[in-house]
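Dear colleagues,

As part of the handover before I leave the project, I'm documenting each prediction I ran so the next person doesn't have to rerun anything. This entry is a single chain, and its sequence is reproduced below.
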Amino acid sequence: MQILKHLAPQLVYVAEDLAGSDGENVAQLRGWVGMTVVVAGEGLADTETEDEGTREKRRWYERSSMVGLGKEVEVVDAARVGEDWGKRVGGRD
């Protein structure tokens, strides 16, 4: 985290596992980097999982106010990270 703060890049990709509990590591990057993209593992389309058989569990980025189009943090499925990189960095549509 400290090296990213000093480098202050315009774009950072962070694996979902490294985002921290409830996205705390991603929240620390706010204001230090231009855009943070959280790379979610398999099953991004199926965001509802059952916990203990009855209760639905939502991922932190589904309920966070800092995530969404036009905001500082976006979420990309791991299977589409190459395509996303091409659009953001390579200017491909």
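Confidence is low (pLDDT under 50) at residues 44-55. Residues 81-88 form the longest helix (8 residues).

All the best with the project,
I.
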